[in-house]
Specification:
Shape: elongated
Number of helices: 20
Helix content: over 70%
Structural class: mainly alpha
Order of helices and strands: HHHHHHHHHHHHHHHHHEEHHH
CATH topology of the largest domain: ABC transporter involved in vitamin B12 uptake, BtuC
Strand order of the largest sheet: 1-2
């Protein structure tokens, strides 16, 4: 780790914000925002709601991506479900709906839930998934009981704690949204400051420990940011669905890239778009809770990514399999044409012979033959039969050579029966050492099976130039 600079930056960031809010005050900051919105002709309440939910979407998506990479996705869900007891107890203690105190109670309860999960994993034989399920169910059940007790209390009937279950941004005042926005911004700043440390911690914590990095402290910091993002998201998305905001954007971004430097900004963009669009749709639809709409929007983004991503998407996978089948069929056809010509050097092959050799239907064999003809690999003789061109012969020789070498290697070196050999292999030079390839080539020549020594006489020389041009 490169010195104490990141940790000093945390202290400097906290001190600067404390001095700023002490000197100016939250109300003055909100007045500045209101003046700026009036100057720009923008509705103040809409801007505050979109800014708060947007920053929440970005911060939860970014820190949630680390949780996905470290296989800790459900920790956020456990923390969210562990928060209701803290929220209810904070209200019972304060006897007022103080947003900061409610979130502080949720934070304490969430941290306690995460600590219980860690203790169960380390001190007992309980697996992580079982520990998460235990904490999630027990804490959430306790939270429902305490929330019901608050609702039965005459002073707590209008506390609005039920808004933490499914989210309700419309019930938040400007000071609440400012707290969410500032906390989200701090999470993003800390992730940026510790991006190198979090990267190594996510992929190789053992190497970080060997390099004497404070792995435990970094892990605690990452978990703290995850808990903070979960807690501040409860008023907007709710207890039940907050885990989706931590998981879905990172999963969606993972379909598009395998580099962390691109994954985090992309996940943040997905989180921002989902939170902003979900909040807007919720505001224009009467009676629609904010949390489910945001999560459904994020799920739509994830489904689109799952289908349309160029490398990992379903569509790309289908196209890849189609190309692979076509490539294998082309190789099988070239090998079949060569083997038939090898057996009968002076005659071309009929459609029926090609189909029977590979077990193809006549229509499928004809389709492959016509495609090979368009590529300049085959030609049709006057009597309706098929023969290799010189261009096709060169391609067939490459395929036959590779398959016969691979077959010889597997049968002799790997003790695999000849009828179990995969004869659709690619170039052996990428798999076997050069001296092994030379030895196998010598064996094929000695057995009279070297393809270049057995060029069929049915190949038409005039077709060479046309075939190469195609």
């Amino acid at each position: 780790m490169s010195g104490p600079a990141p940790w000093l930056a945390i202290l400097a960031l906290a001190a600067a914000q404390a001095l700023l809010f002490a000197a100016v005050g939250a109300n003055r900051v909100l007045e500045w925002v209101q003046t700026a919105c009036a100057s720009a002709g923008l509705p103040y309440n809409t801007v505050m709601v979109l800014a708060g939910s947007g920053l929440l979407g970005v911060s939860s998506a970014v820190i949630g991506s680390y949780a996905v990479l470290r296989r800790r996705s459900l920790i956020g869900d456990a923390v969210a479900h562990a928060a209701p007891p803290g929220i209810a107890l904070a209200y019972l203690i304060a006897r007022e709906r103080n947003f900061f105190l409610l979130l502080l109670g949720a934070l304490v309860s969430g941290v306690l839930g995460a600590a219980v999960i860690a203790w169960l994993r380390q001190s007992t034989r309980t697996r992580q998934d079982a520990a998460i399920g235990l904490v999630l169910s027990v804490f959430f059940g306790l939270g429902i009981v305490l929330t019901s007790a608050v609702q039965r209390d005459p002073t707590g009937a209008h506390a609005g704690l039920e808004g933490f279950l499914l989210g309700k941004t419309a019930g938040l005042v400007s000071q609440d949204l400012l707290l969410i926005a500032v906390t989200s911004a701090n999470i993003l700043i800390l992730v940026w400051l510790f991006q190198k440390e979090f990267l190594l911690l996510s992929f190789d914590p053992g190497f970080a420990a060997v390099q004497r990095w404070p792995v435990q402290a970094l892990d605690v910091l990452m978990m703290t940011l995850l808990v903070a993002a979960t807690v501040i998201g409860l008023p907007a998305v709710g207890v039940v669905l907050m885990a989706a905001m931590l998981i879905i954007p990172g999963v969606a971004a993972r379909f598009w890239t395998d580099r962390l430097s691109r994954l985090l900004p992309l996940a943040g963009a997905f989180g921002l778009a989902s939170a902003g669009a979900g909040t807007y749709f919720s505001s224009v639809s009467e009676g629609m809770p904010t949390g489910p709409v945001i999560v459904l929007t994020a799920a739509a983004v994830c489904l689109f990514s799952m289908f349309a991503a160029p490398r990992r998407g379903i569509a790309a996978g289908i196209l890849k399999r189609i190309r692979m089948r076509e490539r294998v069929a082309r190789q099988n056809l070239l090998r079949t044409m060569y083997e038939l010509a090898e057996e009968a050097p002076d005659s071309a092959a009929s459609l029926e012979e090609v189909a029977a050799r590979r077990g193809w239907r006549a229509a499928e064999a004809l389709r492959l033959l016509r495609r090979a003809e368009r590529r300049g690999e085959l030609r049709r003789t006057p009597d309706g039969r098929w023969a290799l061109t010189e261009h096709g012969l060169q391609k067939a020789l490459e395929v036959v050579r590779a398959h016969r070498l691979w077959e010889l290697y597997l049968v002799e070196q790997a003790s695999i029966a000849a009828d179990h050999v995969d004869r659709d292999a690619d170039e052996l030079e990428h798999i076997l050492p050069p001296e092994m390839v030379l030895q196998l080539e010598s064996r094929l020549r000695s057995e009279g099976r070297w393809p270049e020594d057995r060029v069929p006489a049915s190949v038409h020389p005039i077709e060479s130039a046309a075939g190469e041009a195609r």
